[in-house]
Amino acid sequence: MKTTLRPILGLGAAVLALTAGTAMAQQTTLSVGMQLEPPMLDPTGGAAAAIDEVVYSNVFEGLTRFAADGAVIPGLAESWDISEDGTTYTFHLREGVTFHDGAAMTAEDVVFSLDRARAEGSTNAQAALFANIVSAEAVDDTTVTVTLDGPDGAFLFDMAWGDAVIVDAASADTNATNPIGTGAFAFTEWRQGDSITLTRNDNYWGDAPALTEVTFRFISDPNAAMAAMMAGDLDAFPVFPAPETLAQFEADPRFNVIVGSTEGETILAMNNGGEVLSNPLIRQAISHAINRQDIIDGAMFGYGTPIGTHFAPHNPDYVDLTGQSDFDPERARELLAEAGAEDLTLRLMLPPPAYARRGGEIVASQLRDVGIATEITNIEWAGWLEQVFRGYDFDLTIISHTEPADINIYARPEYYFQYDNAEFQALMEELSVTTDPAERTRINQAAQQMIADDYVNAYLFQLPKTGVANANIVGLWANSPTQAVDVTGVSWSE
Fold first, then answer.
1. Model confidence pLDDT, tens digit, residues 95-105
2. What's the CA gap between 371 and 365, in Å, rounded?
3. Euclidean distance between CA atoms 68 and 82, whole angstroms
4. Whether pLDDT at 345 is above 50
5. What is the number of other CB atoms lying within 10 angstroms of the CB of residue 28?
6. Which of 459, 458, 456, 460 is nearest to 410 (CA)?
């Protein structure tokens, strides 16, 4: 008996050791779902939110950055000094930072990046962020002095945007397809139409991420997204495109449903530069024809906060102006009659997100009820950027603006909805040189009121962040203070 028991006990011990070793082996890869594929991977050269969702913080970094709670914290600059008159910022850069190709990141790269962003003919989608920079100078390898044309209370905030990341002159021209940054993850592969893979940067200057590899997979169809999560083909879908299924995930212990807020003001944008919608009476009529709650219920399955202006409700400066454009179809008909608008037909261009496609059908029905016909065109993201964003070839479109605190876009007459109001532009100029918090609040609130008074767009709802993740994943952002899926602090629980 003893001779037979020993081998059996030995085998059992071996099995237990193997099992314990397997249990202790923590997963270090992550598969993340995204509804939209980015058109490129250079955040300094494109406006699509999907670009930052992949590369912000993960691949590229700026002088400052947004934390999960929206606070602006140090990035590649570990500290800074501001002159008494508020016009000179001296940034002290971290030492030992390298780009993914091994090149050292120095003050010269900061100067190059800022000069490139503000240069004439810049392709930066947010070039206005850099318009007040007079000069950027490298004092030494780790010190940069930036001089502004006046005090700017939002400058450190602006430098946290994805459009302000620091790039290397040697690789800047190829970042669209082969991004090289300083972040905790390096770009590995882009399988067009399928996925993008990042791998851990073992030479990262900061804390090493727990994950060794992250794959972003593109799944535009909500049903396919649900199937992929249920089958375990995806570990997380931070912005889940099928909110109608969230109750099913909540009832399944394998998953966590993560509901938060975003910076995404979802609007029915109107072409203020077009022949028809240049008339504020018609824009006002459209705004009163819209029942926001029906859109939230029908397109977002109850998730979303109604808004009456282009400002996030979670921002302390927010003013609730929903009552100014409340659902009033009779008033809408009166305004159309006053404008002499009869037999009106407008082109409604709908990009791929579910909130746009589903919401567009509801909007079309609501407009039809007050006498406005719509011609709906479902358009892919690249086409939307070309035809609507750059070409101004549209009447209406539904889109969520996910950039943080971006009411200043209304001061840009060349922006796609072509609102041109000198008084508003003066307000934004005043805001840009104001550092006193109380005064900034006053200006922000006046700006919200002005665009609501002008019915520039029909303001629908603040886009919620409804995500689904494996219950063992920790560190995913609940809210989206910027358009990013930051995986630098994500890990699997043991």
1. 999 999 999 99
2. 10
3. 25
4. yes
5. 14
6. 456
What is the C-alpha to C-alpha distance for residues 384 and 321, in angstroms, rounded to an integer? 29
SS3 labels along 349-369: EECCCHHHHHHHHHHHHHHHH
For 203, counting Cβ atoms within 10 Å of its Cβ (0-12 exposed, 13-18 middle, 19+ buried), the class is: middle
Q: Distance (Å, rounded) from C-alpha 101 to C-alpha 231?
A: 37
CB 72 within 8 A of CB 156: yes
pLDDT at 3 over 70: no
Classify residue 192 by its DSSP letter: T
Neighbours of 62 (CB within 10 A): 26
- List C-alpha distances in Å: 271 to 119, 276, 371, 415: 28, 9, 19, 10
Handedness of CA 37, 42, 43, 45 (dihedral sign): negative
Query: d(Cα 140, Cα 471) in Å, to the nearest integer?
Result: 47
* Segment 440-444 mean pLDDT: 95
Residue listed under structure tokens 């922006």: 415
Instruction: Give SS3 for 199.
Output: strand
Rounded CA-CA distance 122/255 in Å is 44
Q: How many CA atoms lie less than 13 Å away from 306 in the CB half-sphere?
A: 17
H helix count then E strand count, the chain: 13, 19
Residue 405: per-residue pLDDT: 87
- Of 417, 470, 161, which Cα lies nearest the Cα of 277? 417
List the one residue out of 12, 6, 183, 16 whose CA is nearest residue 101.
183
- At 90, list the tokens: 């001296």
Percent helix, strand and coil across the chain, each to the nearest 5: 35, 25, 40
What is the distance between the alpha carbons of residues 299 and 222, in angstroms, rounded to a whole number? 12
| pLDDT of 51 higher than 70 | yes
Q: How many CB atoms lie within 10 A of CB 13?
A: 10
Helix (H, G, I), strand (E, B) or coil at 229: helix
For the entire predicted model, the pTM comes to 0.75
In 253-299, DSSP assigns E strands to: 255-270
